[in-house]
Amino acid sequence: MRRTLHDGIMNISTFLKHGNPDGLLLQPLWDDLRAQREFLTSPFLPACYAFLIHLLLCAPFLAFEALGCFWPRINLYRISRTAEPLLLCLQRWVGCCWRIFQKYLTTVLPATALYQRVRIPRFPELAPSCSLLIGEVITCLLLFDALFFIWHYSMHRVPWLYRRVHQTHHQNRITFALTAQDASPAELLSLQMLALSSAWVVGCHPLSEALFHLLNTWLAIEDHCGYDLPWAIHRLLPCFGGAPFHQAHHHIYRGNYAPYFRHWDWLCGTYLGVRDEAGSKHGGRTIRRRRRKKSLGSVCVCAQACMC
Ligand SMILES: [Zn+2]
Ligand SMILES: [Zn+2]
Fold first, then answer.
1. 166 alpha carbon, closest ligand
2. CA 73, CA 69: separation in Å to the nearest integer?
3. Which of 24, 99, 259, 267 has its CA 20 to 30 A from that of 181?
4. Phi and psi at residue 281, in whole multiples of 5°?
């Protein structure tokens, strides 16, 4: 009885502090997370969480690739249109997973554990309102996109940087979901730093920051998945480049430097026009898309070799 009364008083007090009902929606979730403070500040959590979430979010695409070995219709959505036997596909995934695991173990884990030790954890009493959470996540994504564009462009322009930092990522000319993190240790660390810096500059609530990191991981996987699926984010929101946009970068090693959005490449004249026909015929429906963008320095890059 006393506990219920205490909880009731706390709820009223939290409501008064929020000032509007929208702020209360995320409060129970945030209260639960705050109760796990010790676990959340564990030095090994960030690297383990990042690695496991990456694997988990890649899993549907592995299932997709495996299904494609038995059900060729799925391969209509492939951008590269190169299907291979199941055994080869599994070998490719296991090899890539092992490479990423080694880099996490030797570089990302020690670096993030050190960072977690020295940083002062923030656990504000109030959860963010939904509108604040969405606003902060979008701002973080836009900022990260701009910072990554500059960093990625520099790595391609400075030969030393390309060889030492970025070349490993380009060993995958045809990408698949796991290759989003198949990069040199220096590049993996630099990406972590850019993501953390973006959240720090925006001054995110920890809950918004967690969602931003999750979305960041998902968008990178989607960029590299090798499929142009009808429900992909870039199909719903054309401001995103998506897998065809980033696959074009992996095909010709220049242009389309931004990770998620198209605007920086448009503005800087590095946009590669993409004509993709993945998923053009499915279920009797024709979804042929032809995009010919005329921008400064634009090049047509088809998913398959073509005579454009
Ligand atoms: Zn890539
Ligand atoms: Zn690149």
1. 2
2. 10
3. 267
4. -130, 115
- pTM, entire model: 0.81
Q: Find the 8 Cα to ligand 2 centroid distance in Å.
A: 54
Residue 194 alpha carbon to ligand 1 centre in Å: 16
Closest listed residue to residue 184, CA positions, set 268, 100, 117 = 100
Residue 1 lies inside a defined structural domain of this protein = no
Examine residue 30 and state whether it is found in any structural domain, yes or no. no
Residue 277 lies in a domain: yes
- The one-character DSSP state at 22 is G
SS3 134: helix
Q: The domain containing residue 217 runs over which residues?
A: 41-119+131-302
Q: Give tens-digit pLDDT for 12-68.
A: 555 555 566 666 788 899 999 999 888 888 999 999 999 999 999 999 999 988 888
CA distance 125 to 14: 9
User: What is the average pLDDT across 185-198?
Assistant: 95
The C-alpha atoms of residue 145 and residue 136 are separated, in whole angstroms, by 14
Ligand nearest to the CA of 219: 1
User: Structurally, how many domains does the chain consist of?
Assistant: 1
Note whether residue 72 is domain-resident: yes
